[in-house]
Amino acid sequence: MSIEEGTFVQKYDLLGCIQCGRCTGGCPVTVRTPLNVRRFVYDTVDDDVLEELSEKPEIWDCTTCNTCAIRCPKGLEPFEVLLGLRAMRAEEGNIEPTAITALESMFNNGNPWGKPAAKRMDWAEGLDGVRILEEGEKADVLLHICCTAAYDPKIQPFVGKLITILNAAGVDFGLIGEEEKHCGSEARRLGEEGLFEYFDEENTELFGRYDVQRLVTLSPHCFNSFKNEYTNLSIPVLHYTQLIAELIEDGKLELSKEVATKVVFHDPCYLGKKNLVFDEPRYILSKIPGVETTEFFRSKERSLCCEGGGGKMWVESESKAPRLAETRVADAHDLGAQTIAVACPFCWLTIEDAIKAKGYEEEMQVKDILELLGEAL
Amino acid sequence: MNIVVCVKQVPDTSDPDTEVHIDGTGRGVDQSKFSFVINDADNYAVEEAILLKEKHGGEVTVVNIGSEAANQVIRMALAKGGDGAIRLDDEKFAGSDPVALARILQAGIKDLSCDIVMTGCLASDDGYGAVGVALASLMGLPHAAYVKTVEVLSDNKLKIGRELEGGLLEMDEIVTPCVLTIQTGGNEPRYASFKGIREASKKEIKVMDLPATGLSEDQVGEAGSVAVMVQYSVPEVGDLAEILEGDPGETAGKLAGILKDKGLV
Amino acid sequence: MHEIFVLAEHRQGELRDVTLEMLTLASQLDSKVTAVLLGSGMDAFASKLASFADRVLVVDDPMFANWNAINAQAALVALINKDKPHMVIVPNTGQGADVLASLALELGASFTSDIIGLALEGDKPVATRAYYGGKINGRIEFKDAELYMVGLREGAIPAAEGSKSGAIEKVDNPVAADATDRKFLDYEQPAIGDVDITQSTLLVSVGRGLREDKNMPMVEELAGLMGADVSGSRAVVDAGWLPADRQVGISGKTVKPKLYLALGISGAFQHVTGMKGADLVVAINKDPDAPIFQYADYGIVDDLLKVVPALIDKLKEMKG
């Protein structure tokens, strides 16, 4: 193993930890799995046991929801230690077959879903107002679609809604097209640091080809990687909720149709806890005529993760306890919400599953904010 | 124990949404919307070869017939533990049937000393499942097809398990050198990390064209083949499911009939 | 009239169905059909094959009690060189594919493997093969040769009833010495009770449409009747109705059965990705718009709780 002496200690500032336990105390997956992140922060100080620790199945239970980091009084990011352990496993090639399939597809196809790169724009078939930028072409906004939105038939329709909204608001925007690639977020969370660095380089080069002012993403996961993890990306990055909030505020987007439904907003971890974007989605919802909003008891910084991130789309926990998304759906049900609004493809998929699992299909739906906006236009 | 493992890069047509369109010539397919991967069975062959190397020492040489694009699968195999690679690349190789392919492979590896030659048991695109056995015949070596387990008994003897229909394993002894065609499912192919693949890019891939193989034009491609695919056609099946109509008794009856006709019950 | 040799396949005391399928195919080609039977204690098989062939050539010798590619090839070379048939059909199976290419090369035959159809155009055979997982077919033409050989895919041709009464001809074992380079040892049965769904030939797979745990025995009864294994969607595994190793999909297993009977599975692409390799997909779902119907060959739009009991009845009826 190529972990150098003291690497974890320095890389994750382990000696800064005071073992207060606020991380594990707030960790949402502890109700489902044996994961104790405080213990890992403590144990990984010793280089000799890193190998052994990397073999523990619970390192894959972490959803990287950022709760531990937000609660840490010393400003550490405890979950990053688990990603470091995953990276050891990935470098040895010793990871779950389902994760291997996703990672190999990222390398071969530029997306984790095993889909050909040449089909990345299939969602746009029959849609008007889709402009693929040429090299050097000028636009205000470069729109990044995200692999899940581009390929998952359940999510694809949201992209069309976003295109319609941006066109309605007169936004000067363009797309990359078939050359668009995975952001690398899920590669990194599955332990593939090297592959993440590759996407960092490739995408930075790709975005640099266009004369654009801002990069707008559909997924909070891409948003986070571009904004916080890319090493040399200078262009400002926004999540679509930020752009749309701005358009509404500037009076560029008119929401005229009534959407009568009681909505509770589920904060996507990578938008909320990770990037503190709490207000824009709520502002948008407040501007949709007819929408009545309510709040989860656990919202914003205390929001409960849906377990869609952190590579969890490809690695299952062994736990038989209810998924966090089911808890979330039950809470929404108690609030009498008819719609759980989300702003993330992973959240949409996990919550849809949970609604089915709870048998609430007749009473409530999950909707991306883009769907609600589409109804209001 | 030196092992040669033959790998093929194939379109990943296993995706349920993959459409295969016959091109204008009727003898090829439109490849523009494909993604390309290592053939599934070959991936297991690579893993088996590397497991044996890790246990018994020796070298693993990766051999491929393909264009430069195939370097992708070769490098993945090198990253997993392959020591060297040969890529046989000449446009005259196009249209080769399993016999011509085996002849090209034989020419490519003739100077290597090896104990086991492995191929995948079947390619997912053309599905011949014949190259490995043909190669054994050309090399004058014993062979076994559909091998799922390999155990080294002595310097020149292996115990192998051949997977037959229904999952039954036929256990055989075979002497080395020999050719084994490897079935899927006998091991768990490891992941080749990106860092490993980048490292592996430094390893040389020896490229051999037709003159380098010492073969003549009439030994390769269609000219060197004993059977040639001359025309693709679309099988008669609808895109959507054929919906069986009627009340539960009727639909169940129709379904039972279909399953019986297809020999599934 | 041309003669066609058909290599009979048997294993552990049972004649395998593909043998009758090959003989049926050969009988459609207006030729003299000779079944070649290599084995030990072959009288019963020989009699059975006689009603499907014009001639049954039997080498009855302990050397052939179990399959050995080297011994089989040596025997077939001798028999073929003696009688000089126009064509040889072998099964494209664990046995046939173990010998087809090397036998053909030794005999200088033009051959192809894994065919799903065969015709004679004049004197020459023309074969049909499947490509790209069966998405398209291809027509195969052979280089002129004295002998043609093909491997027939199991299940590609339905076996007809036998209507011939061929002569049984026993010949001496032409192989002088048992092979030393390769030896048969024994068979190992796959572990029983520990089902590996990635290896299952038939799968009955259930989804959320099953609604309740208590409906599971009905599914198990159906699977039992069909000789199928039971698998399921993530939802069903999550609910604890099936163990985790029965889960099909991106986060579960990738399966490649001959039949995937999807009961109450909607067909999210994360699930479909795990079952894309199935040869035949049948879906029962009450939602006519369920995506699973896009991937199914046959569909029934109805409640599985109504169709499955009816299907159980029909299968019981068929089995008498």
Description of the structure:
The complex is a heterotrimer of chains A (377), B (265) and C (320). Chain A has 377 residues and is an alpha/beta fold. Chain A has 17 helices and eight strands. Chain A has a four-stranded parallel β-sheet with strand order 2-1-3-4. The model of chain A has no long low-confidence stretch (mean pLDDT 95). Chain B is of the alpha/beta class and 265 residues long. Helices cover 28% and strands 27% of the residues of chain B. In chain B, strands 9-8-7-10-6-1-4-5-11 form a nine-stranded mixed β-sheet, sandwiched between helices. Chain B has a two-stranded antiparallel ribbon with strand order 2-3. In chain B, strand 4, helix 2 and strand 5 form a beta-alpha-beta unit. In chain B, helix 2 crosses helix 5 and helix 3 packs across helix 4. Chain C has two domains: 168 residues, Rossmann fold, CATH 3.40.50.620; 123 residues, 3-Layer(aba) Sandwich (Rossmann fold), CATH 3.40.50. The mean pLDDT of chain C is 92. The chains are: A alpha/beta (377), B alpha/beta (265), C alpha/beta (320). Chains in contact: A-B, A-C, B-C. At the B-C interface, helix 3, helix 4, strand 7, strand 8 and strand 9 of B face helix 4, strand 7, strand 8, strand 9 and strand 12 of C. Strand 13 of chain B pairs parallel with strand 17 of chain C, so a sheet runs across the interface.
Through-space gap between termini of chain C: 42 Å
Q: Total domains of chain C, how many?
A: 2
In one word, what is the shape of chain C?
elongated
**Alpha-beta classification of chain B:** alpha/beta
* Helix-strand pattern of chain B: EEEHEHEHEHEEEEHEHEEH
CATH superfamily membership of the largest domain in chain C, which one?
HUPs
List keywords for this structure.
heterotrimer, B: 265 residues, alpha/beta, Rossmann fold, 2 domains, two-stranded antiparallel sheet, 7 helices, 27% strand, globular, C: 320 residues, 9-stranded mixed beta sheet, 5-stranded parallel beta sheet, 9 helices, 17 strands, 27% helix, 30% strand
Provide a compact summary of the structure.
Chain A is of the alpha/beta class and 377 residues long. Chain A is built from 17 helices and eight strands. In chain A, the strands form two sheets. A four-stranded parallel sheet of chain A has the order 2-1-3-4. A four-stranded parallel sheet of chain A has the order 6-5-7-8, sandwiched between helices.
